[in-house]
Structures are given as structure tokens and as C-alpha cells.
Amino acid sequence: MMNATQDVFVDRYQAGIELAGKLLDEPLVADASREELLVLSIPRGGVMVGAALAEVLGCAHEVIVVKKIGFPGQPELAIGAVAEDGLVIWDDALLPFCHRAGGGIEQSLAQAKAKVEQYTTKFRANRPLEIAARTVILTDDGIATGETMKAAICWANARGPAQQGKALIAAVPVCSPHTAEEIEPLVDRLVCLARPQQFFAVGQFYWDFSQISDHDVLAYLEPPREPMPLPA
After folding, report:
1. Mean pLDDT over the full length of the chain
2. Residue 231: pLDDT band by 50, 70, 90 thresholds?
3. Contact 171, 19 (CB under 8 A)
4. 203 in helix, strand or coil?
5. Over the stretch 107-160, which tens digit does the pLDDT of each residue have?
6. What number is the average pLDDT over the span 197-202?
7. Rounded CA gap, 164 and 152, in Å?
8. H/E element holding 119?
9. Is the separation of the CB atoms in 90 and 80 below 8 Å?
10. Which of 75, 93, 147, 230 could disulfide-pair with 81, CB 3.0 to 4.6 Å?
């Protein structure tokens, strides 16, 4: 659980269990049938959180593949993100700096698109995502700048009328307060356990923030057998 003194979760799975408890109190979730609920997690770290949500809620769990577009020469700095179907969003504040740095955007974009295709094949066998009439819960292990979550939200909101979800919820254990303000208008509900003012990176809020292998992702995508009771 979140440590009251140090504001740290044990690991992603435990954070997901706590997050599921909060979601159960949300009317959009409480009023939906288990068959109607759909957890879409962003690989890789979000898949552990998504697995915990699906296990507690007793619902389906899939990945939504989104990859950040790295700043040329600084791949950890996101200047945008690519979602499925080739949807791209950009951070307009950072794009001018890319041009001043000598470009390289096309290569960064191509790398991100290739990763999306690779993950869609590996983690979902290229099956299309069907969200029509579903209450969709988008999740990750946390939101810093929010580019990947925004791309996932844009993907969901860009569905045609017959393919639209019934409701769209973004649910994460921890979120930057500034980014939370940007995301809240884009979804029906943003649910997060913590919005700490001192936010530098998602990993600072976990005791165990180990890397997750492809094998781990596939294991966490196994469907839950039945709803798991929350710890007393």
C-alpha cells in the first residue's frame, strides 16, 4: 500500500489492487456489468496495474499499444506519442526545439511506429480492439508528462459513432498534478490515488519498479478466473 510517510507503493501490482478499490466506488464502474467493463493497459508497466484491476473487477483486460516519440538525441524526453492505427499526437511546446536541434523527428517517429507494430503483434496477435458500448478503463503505472496516455485517449475518442465506448475512464496510481489538469477534460473520469506536488518520475513512487519482460507482459494478460476480493 502507499506509505503515508514516504508516498511509495510496494509495486505496480499492489498499486493496481488499491486503485481497483477506488474504482469500485466510482458510479461509472459500479453501474456497469462485468461484461461491459474493459481494462486497456499501456505496456509495459501498465500491464501489471491492468492485471490487478481486471482481477478485482472480474473483467476483460487487453493492451492498448502506445509509444512515446523521443526527442532526437534524448529518447527519454517525449515530444509526442504514437497510438494504434497510426494516430500521432505532438507536444507543440517542444517541437520548435527539435527543429533548432537539427531535426531527426522523422526517424524518432518511424522508430515509435515500428515499436507499436511490434508490440501489437507480440502482445495481441494483431487482434483489433473493440470498445463499442464498453466502459473503458485506460491505465498505466503512472502519468508524468502524459503523452502516451493522451494518445491512448485520442485513439479511443477518435472511434466512429458505432465504435465509440460507452464511457472512458483514465485510472492510474499516481499522476503529476499539472498533467492531471490536462487529462481530466479529455475523459469522463480521471481516477488516481495520488497527485504529489514533488513529481520527478513515476519510478520514485514505487519501492519495486523493476523492468518488465515481454514474457511477464504476456503472463499478466492471462484472463482472471474470477473476481478477487479486496484485502480487508
Report:
1. 88
2. low
3. yes
4. helix
5. 888 889 999 999 999 999 999 999 999 999 999 999 998 999 999 999 999 988
6. 91
7. 14
8. helix 105-124
9. yes
10. 147
Amino acid identity at 192? C
Give ∠ CA 21-25-27 in degrees, rounded to 5. 140
CA distance 24 to 164: 23
- C-alpha dihedral over 197, 203, 204, 208, to 10 degrees? 140
Cα 167 to its chain centre, rounded Å, is 16
* More confident: 45 or 224: 45
**Predicted TM-score of the model (pTM):** 0.90
Angstrom distance (rounded) from CA 45 to CA 204? 14
Question: What is the C-alpha to C-alpha distance for residues 49 and 151, in angstroms, rounded to an integer?
Answer: 19
| CA distance readout (Å), 232 to 37, 70, 168, 229 | 24, 43, 29, 9
Whether pLDDT at 174 is above 60 = yes
Q: Provide the CA 2 distance to its chain's centre, in angstroms.
A: 19
Is the confidence at residue 5, as pLDDT, over 60?
A: no
Q: How far is CA 77 from the centre of its chain?
A: 17
The SS3 of residue 77 is: strand
Look at residue 44 and give its three-state secondary structure.
Answer: coil
Per the CB < 8 A criterion, the answer to whether 175 and 195 are in contact is: yes
Packing angle between helix 12-23 and helix 45-57, nearest 10 degrees? 40
Q: Which residues touch 183 (CB under 8 Å, ≥6 apart)?
A: 143, 146, 149, 150, 153, 170, 175, 190
State the first-to-last Cα distance of the chain, in angstroms, to the nearest integer: 12
∠ CA 163-82-223 to the nearest 5 degrees? 60
| Cell numbers describing residue 51 | 492485471
